[in-house]
Amino acid sequence: RAGLGEYAFPVLIVNGMQPGPRLCIIAGVHGDEYEGMEAVRRVLHHTDPATLRGAVVGIPCVNLAAFETATRSSGIDGLNLNRIFPGDATGSLSLRLAATFLRTVIREVDALLDLHTGGGFGEIAPITIVQSGYETLALGLGQAIGHELLWMGGKWGGTARISALEAGKAAVTVEVGGGGGCRDETIAAHVDGVRSAMRYLGMIAGTPTMRQEYRIVSGTFDRATSGGFFLGRARPGGECGAGQTVGVIVDPFGDERQIIDAPHDGLVLWIRRRASIQPGEETVIFGRVERVITS
After folding, report:
1. Nearest-CA neighbor of 126 among 96, 100, 151?
2. Which of 53, 112, 176, 274 is in Cβ range 3.0-4.6 Å of 171 for a Cys bridge?
3. Both 97 and 170 in a single domain?
4. What's residue 155's pLDDT?
5. CA-based angle 171:107:68, to the nearest 5?
6. How much is the average pLDDT of 274-279?
7. What tens digit of pLDDT does each residue of 109-146 get?
8. Domain identity same for 167 and 239
């Protein structure tokens, strides 16, 4: 434990009876994203080594310090693990955790799936993030997850995905669901996506779930200018037109303080599910369809 000068993350490994790729599946980079954690356990517990080609390394919760406080960031040093990779072996707990993960796990595997949700205060549409500039390495893996929406990750850094790609490993981030609970349908969506990726990699029998078309999206974050009570009027993945109201912030009496309208035609990628809101906090992520590609 951290107070005793030691810290660890749980690791599950299934070694197949036949040679093949080594896939790492992680969840719990953010401590309030629960469905991915259970999905990792279910995949590992139901993978038969007799028919598996290669090996599956599962880490249900990378960031126990955040899980124990049910927060995105560490309850020990306050850092967001998803923004500090490749870490620092001599830094604070989260920095050391990132560095240890890269040194002990990423260098030993061939591919990485990083499972996320919309977090404890929001819900996200099924989206796979494929880092822009690494399409040759990761696009096929991202398409194999089976989600129609592909977000080409931009300039933000510090993710395990980017560090893995820089090390020459195929890596994508998979987003779906959230809102603070642990819903079976979201767990199942993650499990299905992982299984499809395993088929794409030739690790298990079957054909991956490849769509004929995928929509490439970009995202714009909207933030509150007023505090109060947030009421969402859209669903993640739903279409929206320019000027359409997708949320409103009201005061304790129900009077409107802020109306959130779509800035352009597109869709809602993520919407807030926590009612309490302060100025500067996220309300919605608006998506714009940049283009359509085929598999």
Report:
1. 151
2. 112
3. yes
4. 66
5. 70
6. 98
7. 999 999 999 999 999 999 999 999 999 999 999 999 99
8. no
| Spatial CA neighbour of 143 closest among 202, 204, 197 | 197
H helix runs in the chain, sequence order: 35-45, 64-67, 93-104, 135-144, 160-166, 184-200
What is the Cα–Cα distance from 218 to 11, expressed in whole angstroms? Answer: 34
Q: How many CA atoms lie within 13 A of 194 on its CB side?
A: 32
Separation between Cα atoms, residue 66 and residue 50, nearest integer Å? 36
Torsion angles phi and psi, residue 248, rounded to 5:
-145, 145
Of 211, 226, 255, which closes a domain?
211
Q: Closest Cα partner for 236 from 219, 254, 252? A: 219
Please check whether residues 171 and 239 belong to one and the same domain: no
Examine the domain organization and report whether 40 and 94 are in the same domain.
yes
Burial of 50 (0-12, 13-18, 19+ CB in 10 A): exposed
Taking only the tens place, the pLDDT of each residue in 43-55 is: 999 999 999 999 9
Do both 256 and 160 map to the same domain?
no
Sign of the Cα pseudo-torsion (121, 156, 288, 242, in order) = positive
3 pLDDT more than 70: no
**What pLDDT shows up at residue 5?**
58
The parent domain of residue 173 ranges over 2-211
Domain boundary among 155, 181, 211: 211
- Cα–Cα distance for residue pair 95/116, rounded to 1 Å: 20
Helix axes 35-45, 184-200, angle to 10 degrees: 50
Burial label, 210 (beta-carbon count in 10 A; 0-12, 13-18, 19+): middle
Residues 260 and 173 in one domain: no
| CATH code of residue 224 | 2.40.50.100
Same domain, 117 and 230: no
121/65 same-domain check? yes
Q: What is the pLDDT of residue 106?
A: 96
What CATH number does residue 80 fall under? Answer: 3.40.630.10
Taking CA atoms, 263 is separated from 248, 284, 285, in Å, by: 15, 11, 11
